[in-house]
Amino acid sequence: MPAPISEIAPYLEANVAGFRGPITEVQKTAQGQSNPTFILTASSGKYVIRRKPDGELLKSAHAVDREFRVLSALRDTDVPVPNALHLCEDESVLGTMFYVMSFIQGQNWVDPRLKGESNEIRAAVYDSMNATLAALHSVDPAAVGLENYGPPGNYFERQVGRWTKQYRASETETLKPMEELIAWLDAQTPPEGAARLAHGDWRIDNLLFDGSGQCNAVLDWELSTLGHPLADLGSQIMQWQLPPGAEGRGLMGVDRAELGIPSDAEYAELYAKRAGLSEVPDLNYPVAFAFFRMAAIIQGVKKRALDGNASNPEAGLKMGAYVPMFAQAALMRIK
């Protein structure tokens, strides 16, 4: 029988340099709906474990081994990431594959309005978030051993194909907006750009910041691959089109200028300059794709909740109600 996390100190002592038990506290983070994440406190300090969820999983989903690989590759770049300390592929230890990384102390915001912060901090956070994204897309994949991190071919074409398959595998009913969106994405695929490392889920709640508003850790690399960098920019701008608050986590209807937060256009223009682009790109397709992918992801969460395998079943069912809303939001942008 696999041991609970609190009892695997002997394993970690044998496999993680400098680790010393016992483990005195295990705290499950509020984030990490897809891959459960735990903060461990041991005699040698704090560590983080991310593991696959329990139950039957979709093929290629929850790839914690890919997360470990990309964290290891980015360690000596300008992209701030935790140190990847150990990957355990022996499922007898915890019941599923997991990896251990260093604990980074930092501020994490779920709400992009950064409520309670000064305009100066908000401006610093958004500027650093933008600079970190440009730094990520400036990394030469071959220089860090990631030249084969994604399959060849058009990124958006293969991603739409992948997420359509994932969506079909967890589909619980026919949703007309999703069918219309899938058809449009298939028909309007943009030409392939230079392959770069794409994070896959670029948003503020996957980043940590220090007290001055500088990004000091990029987290949650499960969806990362080689591909089109505009997918990351589109993903972030998509998030901002959602309602503010704990569920939407967006900036819809928010007076950004009053809060010191850049507009979509200002943020995209700044990114384009930092990324060395000759002009601000058309983001309609990347944003529509981001809505579609998120709809497919939360459909998977809903299916796991219905099957009893979700990390938080109640939250999973609640999230599932947003699938048609995400699809409709994408259609509104492209029509």
UniProtKB/TrEMBL annotation:
Q: Which CDD domains does the annotation name?
A: ACAD10_11_N-like
For this protein, the record's Pfam families field holds: APH
What keywords are assigned to this protein?
A: Kinase, Transferase
Organism whose genome encodes this protein: Pontivivens marinum
Molecular function per GO: kinase activity
Give the domain of life: Bacteria
All residue ranges annotated as the Aminoglycoside phosphotransferase domain in the record: 27-247
Name of the protein in its database record? Predicted kinase, aminoglycoside phosphotransferase (APT) family
Return the PANTHER family for the record: HAD FAMILY PHOSPHATASE, HYDROLASE, PUTATIVE (AFU_ORTHOLOGUE AFUA_1G12880)-RELATED
Q: Which InterPro entries match?
A: ACAD10-like (IPR052898), ACAD10_11_N (IPR041726), Aminoglycoside_PTrfase (IPR002575), Kinase-like_dom_sf (IPR011009)
